[in-house]
Structure formats: structure tokens, C-alpha cells
From TrEMBL:
InterPro entries found in the cross-reference section: Homeodomain-like_sf (IPR009057), Transposase_8 (IPR002514), Transposase_8_domain (IPR052546)
A Pfam family it matches: HTH_Tnp_1
Lineage of origin: Bacteria, Pseudomonadati, Pseudomonadota, Alphaproteobacteria, Rhodobacterales
Name by which UniProt lists this protein: Transposase
GO molecular function: DNA binding; transposase activity
PANTHER family the UniProt entry points to: LOW CALCIUM RESPONSE LOCUS PROTEIN S (PTHR33609), TRANSPOSASE (PTHR33609:SF1)
GO biological process terms, semicolon-separated: DNA transposition
Length: 88
């Protein structure tokens, strides 16, 4: 996964500047990002506080771990079923 140059706190700060009245183009030029990135951030983090963003990140990490565990268990189950279904 690609790492971002901006932390969640910085992103929320930039979005806060926009809500305070700064124009999108000016913010993008000031912080060195594209408008597409800005609108993606706005869709993901719009209206959030820093603590909510940290909680979201923690939940996403936990979800990724659980998905990995589930995939491993399903793979083990498939291998067991394959082994049991063979005729001796």
C-alpha cells in the first residue's frame, strides 16, 4: 500500500482550512497536492475530528487482520476437506 506524505491530523487540518473559507485550488498549491487528492480526502475524512480519524484507522487495521485470518482458515479448511475426500 502506498504511504501518504500527510498524516491524518494534517489532512483534517487542510480540510478545516477549506471549511474556514480557503479555496481548493489555493490549498492544493500551498500543500503540493492535486485537487483529485483533496476531493478523495474530503469524501473519506469530511466532517471528522482527529480522534474519529484515528479510530477509523484502527478499525481498518483490525479489519485487515481479521480478513487475513479468515483467508488462512478457509485455506486450511479447503486443504482438510481435500485430504478427507481422497479415497485410501
Amino acid at each position: 500500500m502506498k504511504r501518504t506524505r500527510f498524516t491524518d491530523e494534517q489532512i483534517i487540518g487542510i480540510l478545516g482550512e477549506h471549511e474556514a473559507g480557503a479555496k481548493c485550488a489555493d490549498l492544493c498549491r500551498k500543500h503540493g497536492m492535486s485537487e483529485g487528492t483533496f476531493y478523495n480526502w474530503k469524501a473519506k475524512f469530511g466532517g471528522m475530528t482527529v480522534s474519529e480519524a484515528k479510530r477509523l484507522k484502527a478499525l481498518e487495521d483490525e479489519n485487515a487482520k481479521l480478513k487475513k485470518l479468515l483467508a488462512e482458515q478457509m485455506l486450511d479448511l479447503a486443504a482438510m476437506k481435500d485430504l478427507v475426500s481422497k479415497k485410501w
